[in-house]
Amino acid sequence: MLEVIGMSRLLKKRETLLFVIIAVMVAIFSTRAQDFATPGNLAAIFNDTSILIILALAQMTVILTKSIDLSVAANLAFTGMAIAMMNAAYPDLPLIVLILAAILIGAFLGAINGFLVWALEIPPIVVTLGTLTIYRGMAFVLSGGEWVNAHQMTPTFLNVPRTVVLGMPVLSWAAIVIVALIYMLLKYSQFGRSTYAAGGNPTAAVYAGIDVGWTKFLAFVLSGALAGLASYLWVSRYAVAYVDIASGFELDSVAACVIGGISIAGGVGSVIGTVLGALFLGVIKNALPVIGISPFTQMAISGTVIILAVVFNARRERNRGRIILRDKAAAEIPAEVAA
Amino acid sequence: MNTALQQPVAGLKTDDAPAILEMRGISQIFPGVKALDNVSIALYPGKVTALIGENGAGKSTLVKILTGIYRPNEGEIIVNGKPTTFANAQAAIDVGVTAIHQETVLFDELTVAENIFLGHAPRTRFRTIDWKLMNSRSKELLHSLESNIDPTIRLKDLSIAQRHLVAIARALSIEARIVIMDEPTAALSRKEIDDLFRIVEGLKAQGKAILFISHKFDELYEIADNFVVFRDGRAVGHGQLKQTPQDDIVRLMVGRDVENAFPKVDVAIGGPVLEVEKYCHRTEFRDISFTLRKGEILGVYGLIGAGRSELCQSLFGITKPASGTLKLEGQSLSVHSPLDAIRAGIVYVPEERGRHGLALPMPIYQNMTLPSLTRTSRKGFLKAANEFALARKYAERLDLRAAALSVPVGTLSGGNQQKVVIGKWLATLPKVIILDEPTKGIDIGSKAAVHGFISELAAEGLSIIMISSELPEIIGMSDRVLVMKEGLMAGLFERKDLTPETLVRAATGNA
Amino acid sequence: MSTVVSTPSEKRVIPDRLGTPFKRIMSSWEVLLFGVAVLIFIFNSLASPYFLDAWNLSDATFNFTEKAMIAFAMALLVIAGEIDLSVAAIIALASTAMGAAAQVGVGAPGLVLIGIGVGLLCGMFNGFLVSVMKLPSIVVTIGTMSLFRGISYIVLGDQAYGGYPEDFAFFGQGYVFWVFSFEFVLFIVLAIAFAILLHATNFGRQVYTIGNNDFAARFSGIPVERVKFILFILTGVMSGVAAVCLTSRLGSTRPSIAQGWELEVVTMVVLGGVSILGGSGKIGGVVIAAFVMGLVTFGLGLLNVPGIVMSIFIGLLLIITIAIPIVARRLKAMSSK
What we know:
The complex is a heterotrimer.
Chain A: H1 2-7, H2 9-32, H3 39-64, H4 72-89, H5 95-118, H6 124-143, H7 155-159, E1 164-165, E2 168-169, H8 170-188, H9 190-200, H10 202-207, H11 212-238, H12 249-259, H13 271-291, H14 298-317, H15 326-332
Antiparallel strand pairs in A: 1-2
Helix pairs in contact in A: 2-13, 3-8, 3-9, 3-11, 3-12, 3-13, 4-5, 4-6, 4-11, 5-6, 5-11, 8-9, 9-11, 12-13, 12-14
Chain B: E1 21-30, E2 33-43, E3 48-52, H1 59-66, E4 74-79, E5 82-84, H2 89-95, E6 97-100, H3 112-117, H4 131-144, H5 160-173, E7 178-182, H6 190-205, E8 209-213, H7 217-223, E9 226-231, E10 234-240, H8 246-254, E11 272-280, E12 288-293, E13 297-301, H9 308-315, E14 323-328, E15 331-333, H10 338-344, E16 346-349, H11 353-357, H12 364-369, H13 373-376, H14 384-397, H15 414-426, E17 432-436, H16 444-459, E18 463-467, H17 471-477, E19 480-485, E20 488-494, H18 500-508
Parallel strand pairs in B: 3-8, 3-9, 6-7, 7-8, 13-18, 13-19, 16-17, 17-18
Antiparallel strand pairs in B: 1-2, 1-4, 4-5, 9-10, 11-12, 11-14, 14-15, 19-20
Helix pairs in contact in B: 14-15
Chain C: H1 21-26, H2 29-47, H3 54-61, H4 65-79, H5 87-103, H6 108-132, H7 137-156, H8 170-173, E1 175-177, E2 180-181, H9 182-200, H10 202-212, H11 214-219, H12 224-250, H13 261-271, H14 283-302, H15 307-335
Antiparallel strand pairs in C: 1-2
């Protein structure tokens, strides 16, 4: 395992910095509000951020392949509405069926995006710009503009994510499980490595035998599936389903990725970074009301943080010119590496 | 005359093992050009086949077909006696074809180990990627290449030569049966070349078939068994290399005697035009000093990665020098951007004409007038008539072949695209013109025309800096040659002292 | 037009252009889109008796004029290979600034200056981040989008500004001549101005070149960073102008004003035939796209279709119009094999 850690030596620096920043923020906030840094409160913040974490991971997989998915929130809205309506209409349907349905519907919507990007080679920003309005509009058509309220949902539907297991709600555990799964997928599966290759250097990826278009397709399907899962969690947690749910989340998911060090150009980024990026936003969101700053400042703070994160990312990515002078080259490469 | 040279048919009659891979009657047609015309080639286990030909002869097209990137329009590929088609790159890899390209086509952000094993990483029992095994196998492979590179660092932290080694390690990792090497020694020192050849011998002993593409005859004669010569998309000869004199091969490559190809015109050389004093860049070159005179052609020679393009791009204002002075016709000059350079009269024709010199989807005339818009327009408004007039003037001067001036420049052949780039710069009425590999990728017929034209420019009083990696070209055309090695000046030679040996020795640092 | 003469003894003569102008025009995106516009117009007139009324049609124009003004500037930016997702947020901030000024009694001319001025400043900020700091525009403008609108939220919270002076209403609600509103006339004037800028000036040529090949543009002496900076200023200023019109039309300001407009503007640009990858597109196409989107929303509005369902049509329109040429090309390639 030491090699795994050693391998991402440089990457770790960025993530540890982010972690330190978050820790410092929490420390500062706890001077203003006594209970801010208690384990209970921190767990609550994590719980509150769980859905964003899942969506951010979905977005990360897509961004790795040099694409973007602006339709994740609309996907969530449609799928959430669909299963909420199913739960209201068929209260006897087992929860597991509903969750599977959510994942499948979400995956299907993601597959539409993926198909348009892969088969027709339409740029992802254009595709998802179109599907984002279509999916949200379909949520309206499906529901007729009606809301599904808490009393229409079955107790199981509502309670499962809130159930506390081993000290944390199932919602938090769901996020943790997804984080672990995505980490392993990206690190240990052929698909996972292909996303890094396809986004990092599409030409070289083709030469290496990787099907770049298919990789993008799968990334969109995965993104949709995660949005589907998140839709159940959202609708159940907030106990309501209506057309405008999660509006703005697609941009939040991109922001979390950017803050976490994911490069918008593709091929660079880590799961830990994305999670920390989401937590960063979550901490801010939860801290503001507690330390007495109006929640109306949240947007401006997010915006500033994103800009700073992009500046930071760009510094790191600045293309080194070819190091030709031999003594310069030797100086820039650590001693044990020089061949 | 060796009669074997006359047969354009595949298959060499030897008493060794049959061919691992044969290509028969392969043709590759692109819009407007036939890149390969009825080519046949055979690769034998344990033998190195040299693929020889000028730039643009079809070698890289052949490599792309062999690696499954292109599908040929005609002909068949036979692997171990069975006709096969490569549906994609993976199919070629599965059959055991691997290639080491000139420009390493790898992933900067991934680790060395992953670059070596991408696409065929070792798996654990659970079909997940086994990083531990990947790292240790990478270490072994790199060891066999006598390298200590740490497999867990990212590729972008390595030097050019080290990246090359990783590419070779990748080829080895695939346990390929056919290894294609495309100009693998371009950026390597003598010691590294020796190491590489030892590896090649090892591969031969393992029964692999090797296709070795190179311009350097001394290396080919050292390492290759058979050869095939390409010219203008056709296989014009093959045979056993060591039994064939070099002149015969050159004649096959060029189609005629070499002497005529470089019509150097003796031009009266005037006073100094550009004086460069101790020009330094932070990481790319240091202490470059020379004086360019009116009507002179200064050749710049060196290995790939020596810093020649970087120096010239700095003179043109693309990158900023760290220190040094520049004087144009006696006046001190500081160049902070291409606009400064153009205004002063220094222009640069890039090596990658498609990537850096032209906006391919845009019409010819728009490309030609780009730096001259202030002259063709009136108060900032475009005047099409003026633009067409300017473009027509230089199209005629350069004998451009195109259907119309409004067609996209991307539809032209390489040689004609080069003409558009040169025309674009001539239209700015420059004093110094820097040419970076002006005949790269141009067929031999057009090459001579380009050289003739360069000579004309010198005769008209322009001063020319010409970067080239082709010895005959640089020896034939230059009045003086500046040799660079790893970012430093390795020598400045007068025309009378120009021999291939002196230049190569200076460029590689071999005694 | 002269034809190619290629006798060996004469000098080669290359014609300026190929083909006839008619053929060139007929096979363009703009014509396809115009056809779609005509179809929609016909469909609308058949579907609702209220459609073919001059005043109703004039009302319809308000659906798209403000967005189109921004779309013109956005088109130039996209052609140059960048994007600005903060335009709607700039509207919010400019509107908030105007509202705050109106509270302290600033008159209509002053409000206009403030609105456009805020747009200019925001544009310069974006321009600085992208051109000088060399940051990727898509994520940077996602950041500034949150920042600008966020500032509006800080100032207004969940309140609204009202109390604009009477003569301020002219911009968004006034008419210049018969049915032609000030906004519509402004839209036409700006369309012409941007068309001239993009198609007839050196600057426009530079924009196209940068979008086609950023390297080649730089290597040819084009000041790429300066051009991009100016383009961001243009989108900022246009957003300011749109803010003046919109605020004047609504008579009030909320922080959520123009929510989601950035995506509609981008849709208008892409629908108008501008490639999101940069390097191609015409202002004429954007004008037609503006009409198409306006016709669709207005026609559906007459049929009492809710806004959110309308956007399904816009989304479908976007994807289908992009996909048709690609599918057509594939089918053609397949049939010719």
